[in-house]
Amino acid sequence: MTAPPYDTRRPRTALRVVGTLLLIGGATLAFVAGREFFGDFASDDVSMEPKFGEFFTMAGGAFLAVFGIGMLNAGTLGAQSRYVAGETMPTVKKSAEYLSDGRGIMGGGRTVDDGAAAGTQRASGPFCRACGTRNDEDARFCDGCGASMALEATAAATGVRAMVLETGTAQPEAIALYESAGYVPIAGFGHYRDSPLSRCFGRVLPGVGGTGEVL
């Protein structure tokens, strides 16, 4: 039995809460100690010497603040990654489409269908992840590069009725790819069930009997 995906919600929340507390506490401590320490230098009283205990307190507060920033960064890493992907991937896709005249680079940015261009019957199955060629629904190997397309066929042969996938709202390219391969939106599953940023898809495998419902 496959182990369930690791639920990261609790550690993520803990990192954000503790990181925020360390940042606020450390910054406050560094500010107060720093004001006292540098105030001794600015004092007109020549008999007053700087208190180096305040210096070390200021340094300790600064360290806590930096450590808190690191914890906040770790706690928001997933959101940062989704944001970066959502901002950069459309540009990467357009660049791949432009540089390859629509034929795509490693399957990305492909808009030209070789079969349609040659006047032959257009394939309706998934695109090959290796070269981007679109194949028939029941193709076991890619017509363009010969790469194996048998993942779904192998799953169906072992009794698997449907395939399910998950992506996020910040990955519109992945959503478009799944839909182009015949996957339809389904309810969230596993630890994605209550995630507002997740989008789950499923597909009943060709040649497998059933009601037509994925889940």
Account of the 3D structure:
The chain is mainly alpha-helical and 215 residues long. Among the domains are: 9-75; 160-215, 3-Layer(aba) Sandwich (Aminopeptidase). Helix content is 47%, strand content 11%. It has six helices and five strands; from the N terminus they run αααββααβαββ. The protein has helices spanning 9-42, 52-75, 77-99, 114-117, 151-157, 172-180; strands spanning 103-105, 108-110, 162-168, 184-186, 198-204. It has a three-stranded antiparallel sheet with strand order 3-5-4. A two-stranded antiparallel sheet has the order 1-2. Helix 1 packs antiparallel against helix 2 (52-75).
Attribute tags:
215 residues, mainly alpha, Aminopeptidase, three-stranded antiparallel β-sheet, two-stranded antiparallel ribbon, 6 helices, 5 strands, 11% strand, elongated
Compose a concise summary of this entry.
With 215 residues, the chain is mostly helical.
Largest sheet: 3 strands, antiparallel
The tally of helices reads: 6
What is the CA-based Rg, rounded?
28 Å
Spatial arrangement of strands, main beta sheet? 3-5-4
Structural class: mainly alpha
Outline? elongated
Provide the fold topology.
Blueprint: H1 9-42, H2 52-75, H3 77-99, E1 103-105, E2 108-110, H4 114-117, H5 151-157, E3 162-168, H6 172-180, E4 184-186, E5 198-204
Antiparallel strand pairs: 1-2, 3-5, 4-5
Helix pairs in contact: 1-2
